[in-house]
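Hi Q.,

Before the meeting this afternoon, I wanted you to have the GLP prediction in hand. No need to reply - just skim if you have a minute. The sequence and ligand are here:
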Amino acid sequence: MEIIICRDYGEMSKRAAGVVADLVRRKPNAVLGFATGSSPIGLYKELIRLHKEEGLDFSGITTFNLDEYVGLAGDHPQSYFHFMHENLFNHINVPRNRIHVPSGTEKDHAAFCQRYEAMIRKAGGIDLQILGIGSDGHIAFNEPGSSLGSRTRMVTLTEQTIEDNSRFFKSEKDVPRHAISMGVATIMEARKCLMVANGKNKAKALAAAVEGPVTSLITASALQFHPDVMVFADEAAAEALTLKDYYRWIDASRRQ
Ligand code: GLP
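Predicted structure with the ligand bound:
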């Protein structure tokens, strides 16, 4: 794992976006995995800027999102489909027919989840998966206790996640109780993973994920077994990392 500690949210977003942009320039038909949540919004803003000001071309990419709330249709303002269009897709030139966000409104969720996995395989697998981290250490909606071998499926959200995400809804009771989420094993198959973590309420989860034991109680810890992971964290999120001075030293040596 490469841990990159950034001065603030702005630097974290810019540097993380740089990795995505480099891949898109090198491989114009890259398959990108996107995440929702407030953490990657700055990264998406920077990708939009690179598109508008520097002509970064997304016309060849294919996208797969990590998750979606069960019961929210794409036009619901709190759906992840809507979030991705508002915060990224509407502002870049990605072809609409190559955007994939799990559907939370299928009659047969299990069959949909299998189709979603098949679509990822058919696209050649995910080249780069962007991730945030929940305050309980989850990736996508793989809550504590999710099998580290899990695939795309319907999950039940924890009370903590419902509380965390209630800030986007009118009230806590409006937050759906279930979601469709890529599994930990689905994410682990991405050729590269890039996590962004910011703010002090992520410090404990990030330290547990990166430096703690690999456990299904912190599903992000599975990434310790992934051969190519970059974690961009701001100072506040990096606060509880035991080896933070070493990570800074590595990053400084690399940039010399
Ligand atoms: C949700 C999403 C995750 C995201 C997490 C953290 O649970 N399913 O993919 O990482 O929220 O969100 P935020 O970045 O807003 O803290």
